[in-house]
Amino acid sequence: MQPASLTVIVAAVLGAGPASALEVTRSRDVPAPPAAVWALVGDFCAIQNWHPQVQRCILSGDDDDDGIRAQIRGLVVQGGRGTIAEVETARDETGMSYSYSFIQGPLPVRAYNATLAVRPNGAGSTVIWSATFDAEGMSDADTVADITGVFDAGLAGIAREAAR
Q1: Chain centroid, CA 21 distance in Å
Q2: Distance CA 130, CA 50 (A)
């Protein structure tokens, strides 16, 4: 096969897949030790204590046939805007991070997967919140701005609560 033909085939195969996911990564330095920040944010339903847009979190968990526990959280959004359902997909207590996927709710996304992590930073910490997703019902730019706003509000809430 000619190299040019191989390039055309590879381009056709890659082009046939879904469009690239959008990404948002935000971080915030927090003047508190990592263990203290993880104690604040590490529980999957602790988001109700630090995110100003979350009125309440309802946690449910079921063991599947293999004994694997799947945690699902329902986030009641402030202002009567609905409930968001998310499932925890990974947890690393030692590494101070968890990952989750969006199931349903009033977010303009699909295929949403995110990670919240706490990292040491000198005598303090850096909290990193990142996600990949596809826009749904809004433009890519508006969806990225919406998720960026959610993350920034949450990170500000973490900093506020860690300072108490």
Answers
A1: 14
A2: 17
Q: How far apart are CA 146 and CA 77, in angstroms?
A: 14
The encoded tokens of residue 24 equal 């948002």
If residue 6 lies in a helix (H) or strand (E), which one and from where to where?
A: helix 3-16
* pTM for the whole structure: 0.84
* 72, 60 Cβ separation under 8 angstroms: yes
| Pairing label, strands 69-77, 124-135 | unpaired
Q: How far apart are CA 78 and CA 19, in angstroms?
A: 32
Decide: 125 and 32 in contact? Cβ < 8 Å.
yes
- Residue 141's identity, in one-letter code, is A
Give CA separation, 128 vs 64, 97, 113, 131, in Å. 30, 9, 14, 10
Mean pLDDT of the chain: 88
**Segment 49-72, tens digit of pLDDT:** 999 999 999 998 765 666 666 799
Q: Are 159 and 39 in contact (CB under 8 A)?
A: no
